[in-house]
Amino acid sequence: MYIHPSFVPLVWFAGFWTAVNIVFWIFKRREPPHTSGSDNADQADHTEQSEQSDQGAAEADPDADTLVELVSPLHLRLSSSRFNDKITCLARVPLFQTGRGKQAWDRFYDMGVYTAFLSMFLCWGVLGYGGYQITSALVGKFRQPLGDMAASGGGETVSLLARRYFDASEGRILKPIIPGVTLPVGHFGEYFLALVVCAAVHEWGHALASAFCGAGVRSVGVFVLGVYPGAFVDLAADLLERLSVWEQLRVVCAGVWHNFILAAVVWAVVCSGLLGRMLGATVCKQAQGVAVVDVSASSPLFGRLPLGSTVYRVDDVWLDESRRRSSSSSGVLNNTAVVTGMGGDTALVRWTWALLASSNRDTLAAGFCASAATNVDDGLCCEMSAQYPLGESPDPEIHCFETFEQSFSLGCYDLRAILESPLGGSGDAGRCLGSSECAHGECVVPSSPFAEGRVARIYYDNQRQQQAGGSTGDSTGAVIYVGVGGWIEGFLQYVVSFSLAFCLLNAAPAWWLDGDHALRLALGDSPAVVHRLVTGATTALLACCIVGSIVLLAI
User: Fold this and answer.
1) Are 418 and 401 contacting, i.e. CB atoms less than 8 angstroms apart?
2) What distance in Å separates the CA atoms of residue 182 and residue 188, rounded to the nearest whole number?
3) Residue 342 lies inside a defined structural domain of this protein
4) Given this model, what pLDDT does residue 470 score?
């Protein structure tokens, strides 16, 4: 049975949660029924434990156990109290409890409080500006004629959905993370692990600060909600309330503070090249290109783009401007502003923009000289449609070209002969801006009237060869930045990104977030209506940004 690559993530998602629900259903049926007497005994035990909670909240429970539960069909949670004693022992180290050591830790978590409130104000600014961007984009979308929306919305594949998202979200500061749509499927491993690490560090901050202040921890755990992993810590709320307001703020803000430190440390390690030297890896200059770590078997580039090579150019979109300036290419490209407007100057942004562009004219700054005598029209190569975006010719080496002057005079030429060795020389020597510049032919570019597929030239540093191949799928998941090494650097970049997101968004005074508790403590005896107004407005703004981003993606 064949499964289209676009639906593989959905199949894995449905299979995983189906298996989890079946396993829990089987174990639930095997549980012995409880008698009323045992229920009463359990209630008596629970009452006795509740009465002793004040004395043992921070202590280790010798009978502590790990609990795995299915909260809902798409919510799996694991919790345990086995780490309580270790967290408490770490916080009670004499160095942290006496003299200058205690003062240092007090100042450390004081900085966390200041950082959290600074992040709160920054988050208001980010949400406000992000909401303005999303609203402007939505207004622009709904002002688009219905005919154009219908024309652009029919029969598109997942890769085209990703292209629409990339075009619409270019320059926006708030973007949803949806694996398989806005996040390359090939990055799912790095994404999942990075999100778990960031969530664990966040909750570890709360747990350590609570134990340091003497409030203790009841349990810690991790969970998976849909495709989003996370962590949590159950603090002893009754003991927290006995702390001073400032100590409570230290505990509430510790998670945001730990995420900020994690982002700063990882960013410094990556940028300094320290990790590359520790791993014995070759550290390349930033934005030198993108490293090919995998190529899908269904991709036209499979078997043609070597693994481990570094892509430095797609068509006339240079992934590294320093290479363009130092290249020995001659001809019109030296005097032409090579394609711009990608919305960013990183190699990955340029790569993604180039592959998801809807037309070859978006990525080509000049045409190719071709001799009319080499026209090999078989009557089918220019028969293009959404189903056959590369033409219906049975010969994959023949492709339809159109004149660069956009007169739409069509002709069929040998694809490799034109793109790899245009008339007048190899490489960029045979490039042109019009047919008048071609002594014995005309200036042409590959025709790409349908966004479902087009031709692209991929330049890579493995003997500096060129490859011409049709791109009809989403290949962005196959690459990450070149640097200290493929998977590790991708993971660390996600750690920095997610840590900063945790730092900003958790500091927002919205319902169920740390900022809500911090604002309540900061307001003190102020009227409750002030807290409700601020948290309500922030929650509404955050919800509008999330929903607006998803709506933009859908339309």
Assistant:
1) yes
2) 11
3) yes
4) 40
267, containing H or E segment? helix 245-272
Largest alpha-carbon pair distance within the chain? Answer: 99
How many independent structural domains does the chain possess?
Answer: 3
Q: Is residue 299 part of a domain?
A: yes
Averaged pLDDT for residues 439-447:
82
Q: What is the DSSP string of 498-517?
A: HHHHHHHHTTS--TTSHHHH
Query: Is the same domain home to 322 and 217?
Result: no
pLDDT, one tens digit per residue, over 54-113 is: 444 444 444 457 888 888 899 999 998 888 888 878 777 777 777 787 888 889 999 999
CB 285 within 8 A of CB 316: no
Averaged pLDDT, 379-405: 83
Write out the two tokens for 313.
């150019």
3-state secondary structure of 370: strand
Do 399 and 540 lie in one domain? The reply is: no
- pLDDT of 463 strictly over 70: no
Domain containing 4: what range? 1-48
Q: Which residues contact 74 (CB under 8 A, 6 or more apart)?
A: 17, 225, 226
Same domain as 545, residue 501: yes
Q: Tell me the C-alpha distance between 245 and 170, whole Å.
A: 43
Q: Whose CA is closest to 24, among 67, 61, 81?
A: 67
CA distance 356 to 317: 12
The separation between the first and the last C-alpha atoms of the chain, rounded to the nearest angstrom, is: 31
8 A C-beta contact, residue 440 and residue 430: no
In a domain, 53, yes or no: no
Whether residue 153 has pLDDT greater than 60:
no
Count of C-beta atoms within a 10 Å radius of residue 73: 11
Same domain membership, residue 159 and residue 271: yes
Instruction: Answer yes or no: is pLDDT of 44 > 50.
Output: no
Q: At 262, is the pLDDT very low, low, confident or very high (cuts 50, 70, 90)?
A: very high
What is the rounded average pLDDT of the residues 7-32?
82
How far, in Å, CA of 435 to CA of 401, rounded? 13
- Scan for tokens 């409700």, then name that residue: 532
Predicted local distance difference test score (pLDDT) of residue 508: 93
Instruction: Yes or no: say if 253 and 516 are a contact pair by the CB < 8 Å rule.
Output: no
Q: Which two tokens stand for residue 164?
A: 């629409």
Domain boundary among 481, 516, 538: 481
Continuous segment of H or E residues that includes residue 555: none
Residue 380 three-state SS: coil
pLDDT, residue 412, reads 87
Q: Are residue 513 and residue 530 in the same domain, yes or no?
A: yes
338 near 513, Cβ under 8 Å? Answer: no
pLDDT of 525 above 80: yes
Q: What is the pLDDT of residue 66?
A: 82
* CA-CA-CA-CA torsion sign (288, 293, 297, 303): positive
Element (H, E) at 63: none
Nearest 5°: the CA angle 230, 178, 340 is 130
